[in-house]
Amino acid sequence: xxxxxxxxxxxxxILVPIFVMVGLIIWAITGTVNEGLxxxxxxxxxxxxxxxxxxxxxxxxxxxxxxxxxxIIFSAIGMSHVFNWNEVRSLKLKNYHYIGxxxxxxxxxxFLRGRYWISSNMNGYxxxxxxxxxxxxxxxxxxxx
Length: 145
Hints:
The chain is α+β, with helices and mostly antiparallel strands. The chain has one domain. It is 46% helix and 25% strand. The protein is built from three helices and seven strands. It has a four-stranded antiparallel sheet, with no helix packed on it. A hairpin with a 2-residue loop joins strand 3 and strand 4. The longest helix is centred in the N-terminal third of the chain and has 29 residues. The two termini are 28 Å apart. It comes from Pseudogracilibacillus auburnensis. This is PH (Pleckstrin Homology) domain-containing protein. Keywords: Membrane, Transmembrane, Transmembrane helix.
């Protein structure tokens, strides 16, 4: 089953923040050329590339989640993280209902893989979360805890 955001949510939650961050970097570059390096521009040059790096490469907010009997795939911006269920040893879910998001941790997360935020705006969100809860419970039973 494939779960993804409606187009407007995809644009507002995935693409707009990327464009805003790129715009901030461009603004800081032109400001530095015209005015010199100020503390604000230093902050932008430090923080925004880190946020951009983790947001794009880490796929922390996937635009699409595909779940099959064999694997789960988190995708965004032309990149995907694939986890085969037979290799996943843990699946942890934390519901942040007050912000409308679910935090999903797959296996032993690495620097850029295994940590994802799923928004309740995603089509089929409740079904997806129920499937993930079911998988999480099965993994815990298999581990004996």
